[in-house]
Amino acid sequence: MAGKRGRIDRRLSAAPSLVLERPADIIAVFRDGWGEVVRRFDFHPLGLPADIAMLLADAFRNHHAASTQETQRHCWMALRTFARFVAEDGLILSVNDLTSVMVGRYIAWLDRQIAGQTNQPWSRSSRANVLMQLRQMIDWTKRRHPSRLPARIDFPWRVWPNRNTDARPRLGGEDLKVILRACYEEIDEAWDRFETGRKIVATSGPVDGVDPELCDLIRALAGVDDGVVPSRTLAIRSGVNISAVNRRGGLRHLGGYLHLTGETVAAFFIALSIQTAGNPDALRLITRDCQVAHPLDEHRIIVEWAKPRAGAKMKRAQRRSFDRRRRYAAPNLIDRLLAMTAALATRASRQDRDRLFLVKSEKKNTVTLIADGTLSHALRPFIKRSNARIAIWNKAAPERARPFLPDFAAVLLRGSVATEYYKASGGDIVATQGVLNHARADTTELYIKGPQTRRIQRETIARLQALMLGWIVGAKTDTEDQAQRDCIALASGATVPFSHDCLNPAAGTAPGSAAGRVCRHFGGCLRCPGLVIPIDADHMARVLQAKEELERTRERIDPRRFELLYASSLRILTDDILPDFPQSLRAEAERRMAVLPPLPALE
C-alpha cells in the first residue's frame, strides 16, 4: 500500500534583503563583461571625510556597475563638484552632517556658480543634473544601507522648474553646408593619404608621385607594430629614422598613411552627425555592421545604430536610408571608415573591436573607442584648420569668397538639423519627429525650440485663423487674394530652365498644383531623387553653363520673379550637384563649355 504523500507548502516567502559587505577602500573599480578593469576612480584626492568618501564610493561602485563609461564619468564629475562644495562649506565633517539642511545649502551654492567660459551662472539643466547625481547616491544608500545615514536627508522636488525653457543656439542651413563642405575636403585629404599608404605598403619598390624616403618611412613604421603606427620609444628601438619622421610631420601625421587618426576622425564624425541627425553620444557608439541593404531600392543603404535611451520598455533602433550614388553619402563615408580602421579593429579590446570610431591612444598606446572628450577637443583644431584653408582660398579668389566656419559644438548639430527639417516641412513637427525617431512630439519640440520655430508657428496659426474666418465669412481676405494674384502675375510667361515655355507655372492648372504656388513640375528634374548625372567633363561643362545662365538671369530680371521661379534651381546646381564633381575636371569642363551651343534666355 502506497505511503501518504507529504503536504506541499505553497506559501510565498519574502526574499531576504540583499546586504552588501562594507567596502575595504574608497577606490571604485569598474570592469567589463570579460572581467578586465576599464575605469578606476580614486576618492582620496577629493578630500572628503573618510566616512562620506566610503559611503559615496560604495554607492557609486554598485549603482553604476552596469552603466556606460560616459554615465560613470558624468557621475564622477558631479561628485567632484560636491567635494568642492564640502571644502568651501566647512560644515560637513562626517556622515552625521549629511542632512536636509545641507542639501539646501548645496542648492544655494550651485546657484552661485559661474561658468568660466561664458562668465554666466550655470544653466538650470546643469545644476539639476549635478544635484540628481548626488541624490542617486543617497537614495541607493537609503535602500541598501539605511543605517549608514544616521540623520534624515531629503531632496526637494523640482528645484529648478522649466529647466529646458532656454533654447540652445542653432546653426543655420548655410552654416551646416559650410561645415559639411569643410568636412568633405578634410575627408578627401585623409582618404588620399591613406590610399597612398596602402600603395606604399603593398609594394616594395617606388610609387609614382611619392618621395622614396617617404615610402621607406611608411614601410618601416608599418613593419614595427603590424600596420599600426608605433610609439616614439618603440620606433626608436626598432631602428626607424626619427629625424626623417620629424621632417615629414611627425608620427601623428604619418599615422594617417596607415589608419584613421584622432586628427581626422572629427571630420567623419561631424559629417555623419549632420547627415543622420543622430545624437552624438549614440552615434559615437555605432558598430561596424551598421549598414543594411534597402529591401526595395538597390541604390539605397539603411544605416542603423542604437540609442540607449530610445524607448522605455523596448529599445528602438535609429535608422536612416541614403542613396549610395552620391559621392559623400553616409554609406560611402562609413565604407572609408571601415577600411581606415581595419588595422585598428584587430588591436582593440573585446568590448571595442566591433565599434566604428576606433583610434590609437597616444598616451596609453592602446586602440580604443574614441572618447567623448577627445571628440570635443578635436572640434576646435578642425575649425581652425578649415578656416585656415578658407582664408587661403579667399585670398587667391576674392571674387568667389567662401564663408568661414562658425564656432560650434557637436551637441548643437542634432538640434540644428532638426530645425532645418522643421522649416523645410513647413512647420510639420510630426515629420521632424520621424527624422529624430522620437516617441513623443514634445521631445522633438525641445530640439526645434527657438526664434525661427516661433516665427513659423505664429505664421501657421495666423494662416489657420484666416482660413477659419474664411469658412465663417465665406470668402478669403483681400490680403490673401492680392498675394495670390501677385504670385500669378510674377510667374506669367516663364521658361522651364533650359526646356519648354510655360504660360504660367503659378496659375494652378496642372494636376496637383495650387494657384499662387509654383507648379511642382516646373524644374522638377533637378529636384528628382532619381536624378543621375555622370561624373565627367562634358556633364560638368553643361552644369557650369546652366549655373552661369541662371546667374546672368538673376542680374537681369525682377528679383521677386527670379526668387519665385529660378532661385531653387540655382541653389540645387550650386550646393548639391557641382560639389559632387572633382575639382580636377573643372579646367577641362570650362574649356568645353566655350564650344557648347548657347542656352535659351530665361524670362
Question: Can you summarize this structure?
Answer:
The protein has 603 residues and is mainly alpha-helical. Among the domains are: 27-148, no CATH class; 181-257, no CATH class; 478-593, no CATH class.
Describe the protein's architecture and organization.
There is one protein chain. The protein is built from 24 helices and nine strands. The chain has 603 residues and is mostly helical. Among the domains are: 27-148, no CATH class; 181-257, no CATH class; 478-593, no CATH class. The termini are far apart. The strands form four sheets. Strands 3-4-5 form a three-stranded antiparallel β-sheet, with helices on one face. A two-stranded antiparallel ribbon has the order 1-2. Helix 1 crosses helix 4 and helix 15 (411-424) runs antiparallel to helix 16. The protein is globular, with a radius of gyration of 31 Å. Residues 17-24 have low confidence and may be disordered. A hairpin with a 5-residue loop joins strand 1 (27-31) and strand 2 (37-42).
